[in-house]
């Protein structure tokens, strides 16, 4: 085929496409899109009373609102301090005198002061940005859950009973009366592996779009284009957050089938942000460039609540979209997902082979170098300047009013998961499966539907001693951390009980240092030499926490060898070494002993 014939084929295809996409059809599609978008905007106005009611009376939603208030305080500082700094810098620069040589030293001092002020402001903004970013991420996750649960029970049942259109029904294979009223992902058989894969894909797409829009915003004459893209991007994010029952793959199909929904959410969010910026700027005179990003983040939470309350008025999910993507960001996501899936097919075949031989990456050396760089004095100084306190101290992180309640929970979940994996790898069945990972993966796929590639990789990792040792070290580090604010009280007490050894006089007990972590339900007592009671009951020793009326009784008998043996109320005799912590939970049966290092 020559050049002329090829060009003729292309022109014929373009002509046919143009004739099929007539002006009437284009106008009709655009009109339908605009009408549906406006309709969804007005539906949000209708659910505004229910949204305000849940914020006032629903406890989980009220907790989210309280966290949003903390976030608003962070953004207020983030706006005020740079604003004051800019005003001071502007006033200092206006006092420069280029004509008077006598004032040269004054101008030099002002220049140095302005530079120091700029560096201090930059460090503050970095610390505050990291702090606000962590809090905003946590609020977004807990907010989506609270807003979805704030719907009334009747609305929940109605939402659960929505009719779902499986892929088979879209092709007309089943009659309409056979439609099942259950979750779409259950109908389509979405496995955990598919959910994890599509979640990774979705996160990659979200953050890559964030980066692209950020770079586009740096170019001249792109403000309006970037604004429209951000509008659609924010609307898509809100829609995904209110559809947790769908896997990310079906969320993507839903957004492609109903592009008017993210457009409506994005327009409403942009309107709320613009209104808040106008009210603040008109009443304070502070330009919105100092707090616009904070208002945008806070209004995103409000928009998420509005969207969750109108969830039952949204169209039902679909297994696959029949509409062509017209949004440039949606076209980009489709291309990105196709690339990731294509790369994943090759990775599935190569990853087991890569895990067989010795790794070419010196992981041990990299870890050693990283730890030395992290513990370097210059690195510690830089972290103390740029990182907020909650990222420097685990106790500060656990006591944070927004993040703290989730830190202990996540710590426990990670530690329990690692502990479960460590127990599983010692079972004889798992050891046998590690000898033939390929056959074991096929068997698990036939029995439970587990993806064979993931199963083979998991079995390989279970047999990797270095990897499992690293996991065990991580679990021990997590379990050793007592997250929370500690207060210490020293108590002087005299031990008047005679020593059981022959010829020994009564001795004076050492000081007791009681450590009360704020972690819920845990209290501990640290003793410097041997277990000494906080209260005497005859020969017995009563260890107690002043904040709890429940008492843990431990009788101690000192043998001739000088060791101490504790007889706990609910267990057999247990030897207690010196320098030890007796830890108990508020459950009377929850006594526990663990070593203590001075």
Automatic annotation (TrEMBL):
Spell out the Basic and acidic residues composition-biased ranges.
Answer: 154-172, 494-519
Residue ranges under compositional bias (Polar residues)?
572-582
Chain spans, region Disordered: 152-180, 494-520, 564-598
Top-level taxonomic group: Bacteria
Protein name per its UniProtKB record: Uncharacterized protein
Query: What species does this protein belong to?
Result: Legionella spiritensis
């Amino acid at each position: 085929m020559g050049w002329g014939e090829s060009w003729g084929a292309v022109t014929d295809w373009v002509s046919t496409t143009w004739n099929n996409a007539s002006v009437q059809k284009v106008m009709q599609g655009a009109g339908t899109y605009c009408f549906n978008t406006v309709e969804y905007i007005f539906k949000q106005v209708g659910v505004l009373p229910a949204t305000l009611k849940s914020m006032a009376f629903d406890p989980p939603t009220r907790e989210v609102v309280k966290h949003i208030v903390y976030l608003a305080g962070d953004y207020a500082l983030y706006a005020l301090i740079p604003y004051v700094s800019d005003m001071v810098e502007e006033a200092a620069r206006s006092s420069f005198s280029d004509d008077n040589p006598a004032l040269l030293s004054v101008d030099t001092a002002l220049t140095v002061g302005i530079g120091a002020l700029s560096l201090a402001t930059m460090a503050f903004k970095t610390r505050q940005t990291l702090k606000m970013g962590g809090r905003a991420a946590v609020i977004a996750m807990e907010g989506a859950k609270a807003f979805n649960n704030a719907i009334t029970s009747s609305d929940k049942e109605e939402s659960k009973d929505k009719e779902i259109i499986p892929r088979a029904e879209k092709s007309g294979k089943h009659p309409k009366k056979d439609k099942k009223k259950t979750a779409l992902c259950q109908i389509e058989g979405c496995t955990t592996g598919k959910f994890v894969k599509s979640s990774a894909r979705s996160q990659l797409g979200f953050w890559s779009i964030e980066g692209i829009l950020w770079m586009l915003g740096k170019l001249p004459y792109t403000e309006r284009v970037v604004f429209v893209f951000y509008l659609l991007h924010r609307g898509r994010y809100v829609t995904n957050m209110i559809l947790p029952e769908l896997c990310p793959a079906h969320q993507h199909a839903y957004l492609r089938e109903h592009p008017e929904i993210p457009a409506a959410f994005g327009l409403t969010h942009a309107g709320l942000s613009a209104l808040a910026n106008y009210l603040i700027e008109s009443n304070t005179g502070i330009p919105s460039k100092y707090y616009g990003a904070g208002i945008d983040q806070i209004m995103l939470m409000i928009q998420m609540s509005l969207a969750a309350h109108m969830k039952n008025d949204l169209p039902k999910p679909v297994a696959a979209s029949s509409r062509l993507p017209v949004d440039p960001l949606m076209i980009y996501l489709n291309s990105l997902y196709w690339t990731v899936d294509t790369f994943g097919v090759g990775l599935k075949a190569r990853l087991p082979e890569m895990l067989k031989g010795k790794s070419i990456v010196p992981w041990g050396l990299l870890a050693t170098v990283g730890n030395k760089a992290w513990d370097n004095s210059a690195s510690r100084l830089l972290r103390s300047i740029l990182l907020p306190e909650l990222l420097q101290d685990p106790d500060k992180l656990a006591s944070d009013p927004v993040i703290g309640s989730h830190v202990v929970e996540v710590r426990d979940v990670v530690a329990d998961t690692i502990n479960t994996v460590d127990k599983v790898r010692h079972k004889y069945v798992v050891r046998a499966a590690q000898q033939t990972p390929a056959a074991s993966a096929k068997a698990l796929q036939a029995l439970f539907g587990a993806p064979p590639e993931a199963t083979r990789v998991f079995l390989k990792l279970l047999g990797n001693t270095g990897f499992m040792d690293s996991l065990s070290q991580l679990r021990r580090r997590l379990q050793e951390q007592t997250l929370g604010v500690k207060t210490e009280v020293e108590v002087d007490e005299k031990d008047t009980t005679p020593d059981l050894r022959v010829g020994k006089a009564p001795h004076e007990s050492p000081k007791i240092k009681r450590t009360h972590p704020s972690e819920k339900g845990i209290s501990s007592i640290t003793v410097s030499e041997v277990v000494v009671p906080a209260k005497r009951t005859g020969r017995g020793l009563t260890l107690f926490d002043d904040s709890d009326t429940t008492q843990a009784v431990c009788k101690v008998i000192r043998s001739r060898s000088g060791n101490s043996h504790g007889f706990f109320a609910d267990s057999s005799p247990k030897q207690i070494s010196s320098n030890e912590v007796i830890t108990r939970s508020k459950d009377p049966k929850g006594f526990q002993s663990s070593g203590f290092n001075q």
